[in-house]
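Deliverable D5.2: sample structural annotation.
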Amino acid sequence: MRRPAIVVVVVVGASLLAILALSLRTTSLAFTIGVNVAGPVATLQRGDQTCQRPIDVPTHAAFDRVVFSVGTFGREGPPLAVTVQDLSGRVLGSGALRGGYPDIGQQQSHTVQLSRPVGQGRVAVCIRNKSARRVAIYGNVDAAARTSSAFTNGRRLPFDLALVFERDRRTKLSLVPNILERASLFRFPWMSAWTYLILFVALVVGGPLLIVRALRSAR
């Protein structure tokens, strides 16, 4: 039974190395509201504005870029203004998408750099058409983000905008404290965020030991 025990140790070790390699990869993602691009949900004429609200920015997920998809009806895209506001209307950050960008068939998404980072809190993200040429902002049905909705010129739509929020690149390993903190929301009152880390370590270390012990007892 010695050989099966060695196989277990090798497999577990290889799995841990794979997890470590994946965790050291970098990502620019701050967070997303979970809305995939399905189709156009808001058509904007000159001066029209569509907003997604409310959006809860998680702890430690400050962002300074907003990514979204735009349809231009086969023409060069017009300039768009992007603002991030708190729910009282105070502007927290702003940016612009310059005109001349291609239709969604040629470029799936566009990234707008904000004037300053936006941190934890409840916000609204608004996109305004500054040109006479119409555009379509892409998103999905309203159920995609259950606690948030799209509004065009103040009128609620049965849709959500497909928005992604980014910041400077960082390793996925650096996200572990955030993951533990969010996971701790779904817990018993006596559990802390680090309980999940302890359980993970116990699973990784204790699981193989129990398997090896079972193999030995099966002799």
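Annotation notes: The longest helix spans residues 194-217. DSSP finds three helices and 14 strands in the chain.
The annotation will be released with the project's public dataset once the embargo ends.
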